[in-house]
Specification:
Chain lengths: ~475, ~100
């Protein structure tokens, strides 16, 4: 039996505002418990929500970036359920009339093809607080600092057909919200998380199977693994004659499995109704135009430009535009090395990225700035050092030994381009390896590598490679 | 639109209202007659009319994104039945 997988994602992106969506309390991460939960966030009697203009602007930015419809009029609704970290007994969200609807993004598939994933809607809502279950033996602790933090819930169409596609889509949205500067994308801190709706159906069927919703997936890897687990589980159930139950499940990363959530079974009836505390949100054409004018160059456009302007492959352009920081860094390196885009791409994707990964640091914190890397590349281009020596200089820059010129000077790494000096070294080598010279002259030309190696050893890698090759060939043939 | 006693019990549970069993039928009757009364509205032709989200003919005012609140957690927590280590404590929730 062949099965087709159908996946839709609901992504929650915390908007990077300073204050909460309906109150003037701070949204800064990591504060002492409840020190950033004001009377509005606590749902004390008599308080009223007042909508944060910046949260609206960010939602509109996202809508424009995915070619969606931005509603001229949208409405806030109460989603009613009881949980201790939801002080009011309802979450203010949007239901029938969300601020953003009918957008789309493109993802690149493993085979290089491009697929369009529909975004059904994106709506504004407030986050709930946090429950601390393990700190007290007889009680649950509640921290309401997060309560009221603005969220954009981005709901996709059920357009994805594999866990890989779901991850590609999630990465695309992740990159987009960071480009737009509307979400810091920090998945560990929960600023960007997702729920996965998964169902399977017989290949060729047009009706959807019964789906499950797996909650709170906060890494790309977990999304992929949770979906794969869920797909296999559902296929097993169906192939053994059972039926999939529509339910909410939790992914347990330690056990790499999903299991049903017990507590919220009956909470499926949220009894939404328009929130009488809030008036309809109106967005006019002038506001849309103003936001449109602020949009930065978006990843897809930047990728196309990198391919055209810098002659990069689609793959390289994709890697270099995956984040705005990476793209900005790359372009700053190009500028610092007189426009040598290809060389800059090799170094940014090569040594620079490798060091970033190894030391798990952000581009902004990297000890090698774009102008330092550009300065190093200049020294390769003007033949002061070889590419191989440049790697050593790069290491030293990363270790904080200064810029390229200072390191080249301090370590005496300048390439030997003085042909007199090189000739003397080569003469020496030829004199001390008569057997190899004879073999070379008898036609074993591969031995040139041996001589290059000897010369590099003698110069500690500082010989100019092209010059060395030319000199060696001339002397050996002579 | 008559409501059955099961529906009344479900609604009460969703709202976390304790309903003495001997009152369920009375509530079912009362709620049903309220719904029947409201049903008269269905006679009105609402084609092409935008649903009203708020009785006030106005739009939402927005506030600038500025932090205006200071930490008053000590005062708030003095109102709470239990608070420790800065956390509000509630009966154990088992997930």
């Amino acid at each position: 039996m062949e099965w087709e997988v159908v996946i839709g994602l609901e992504i929650h992106a915390q908007l990077a505002t300073r204050s909460k969506i309906f109150s003037g309390a701070s949204t800064a991460y990591g504060a002492e418990p409840n020190t950033q939960a004001c009377a509005v966030d606590l749902g004390l009697p008599g308080v009223l929500p007042v909508l944060n203009a910046e949260a609206v602007r960010m939602a509109v930015k996202f809508g424009l970036a995915i070619d969606a419809t931005v509603a001229s009029r949208s409405v806030f609704a109460r989603k009613n359920y009881f949980y201790p970290d939801l002080p009011k007994g309802y979450q203010i969200s949007q239901y029938e009339l969300p601020v953003v609807s009918q957008g789309a993004v493109e993802i690149e598939l493993d085979d290089g093809n491009v697929k369009t994933i529909g975004v059904t809607r994106a709506h504004l809502e407030e986050d709930a607080g946090k429950s601390v279950h393990d700190a007290f033996p007889d009680a649950t602790g509640i921290d309401l600092n997060r309560a009221g933090t603005p969220l954009l819930e981005i709901v996709s169409e059920p357009d994805m057909r594999s866990a890989r596609e779901a991850v590609a889509y999630m990465k695309k949205i992740h990159s987009l919200v960071r480009y737009l500067g509307i979400c810091d994308g920090n998945m560990q801190e929960g600023s960007f998380r997702c729920d996965a709706n998964v169902s399977v159906r017989r290949k060729g069927s047009h009706e959807f199977g019964v789906r499950t919703e797996t909650k709170n997936l906060n890494s790309f890897r977990f999304v992929e693994r949770a979906i794969n687990f869920e797909v296999e589980r559902q296929i097993d159930v169906l192939e053994s004659g059972g039926a999939v139950v529509q339910e909410t499940r939790l992914y347990d990363a330690a056990k790499d499995e999903t299991r049903p959530m017990r507590s919220k079974e009956e909470a499926n009836d949220y009894r939404y109704f328009p929130d009488p505390d809030l008036l309809p949100l109106e967005i006019d054409a002038a506001f849309l135009e103003a936001v449109q004018a602020e949009l930065p160059e978006l990843p897809d456009a930047k990728k196309r430009r990198f391919m055209g302007e810098y002659g990069l492959s689609a793959y390289d352009a994709g890697v270099l535009t995956a984040s705005r920081e990476m793209a900005d860094y790359y372009e700053a390196v190009i500028e610092a090395c007189n426009g040598e885009a290809k060389l800059a791409a090799n170094w940014v994707m090569g040594d620079f990225s490798a060091h970033l990964n190894k030391s798990a640091c952000e581009i902004g914190e990297a000890p090698v700035t774009a102008s330092m890397l550009g300065g190093l590349l200049i020294r390769i281009l003007d033949n002061t050092i070889s590419g191989k020596i440049a790697k050593e200089v790069f290491e030293a820059m990363w270790a904080g030994e200064g810029n390229a010129d200072a390191i080249i000077e301090a370590r005496g790494l300048k390439q030997i381009s003085d042909s007199g000096a090189l000739e003397a070294i080569i003469d020496d080598i030829i004199a001390s390896h008569p057997a190899q010279v004879e073999q070379y002259r008898a036609g074993k030309e591969k031995l040139i590598g041996f001589f290059v190696g000897q010369a590099m050893k003698a110069t500690q890698g500082k010989a100019n490679p092209q010059q060395l090759n030319a000199l060696l060939k001339r002397k050996l043939s002579g | 639109m008559p409501l059955g006693s099961d529906e009344v019990k479900r609604i009460a549970h969703l709202a976390r209202l304790a309903l003495p069993p001997d009152t369920v039928d009375a509530y079912a009757r009362d709620l049903s007659s309220i719904l029947t009364f409201v049903e008269q509205l269905e006679a009105v032709d609402t084609q092409g009319i935008q649903p009203m989200a708020h009785p006030q003919e106005s739009k939402q005012r927005l506030r600038p994104d500025v932090v205006t609140e200071s930490d008053q957690s000590a005062r708030f927590q003095s109102l709470a039945p239990r608070a420790e280590m800065g956390l509000y404590l509630v009966p154990k929730v088992i997930e």
